[in-house]
Amino acid sequence: MNRGHPDLTSLRFFGLGPTTSSSNRTTYRLEDRTFEMGLNAWKSRFAELGAGVQWLTTEPGHGASGVSLDNQFDPLTTPGF
To answer: How far apart are CA 69 and CA 25, in angstroms?
Structure first.
């Protein structure tokens, strides 16, 4: 069983496409929650059977430093937000 909870508070975003500029720099928060569980059984000395399940939830939010993404870009037209 494995659990994770990274909380990244100042990820950078400059916009979409090749015409973005460093002056458009914003930050956003990305909080992930994962839960993973697996089961393995040795069938023989040379074979192992296994099964697993993983659950991931991701939640974006306001950045902790600088200009927040939702103040610079429209979250409704920004993929993933």
So the answer is: 8
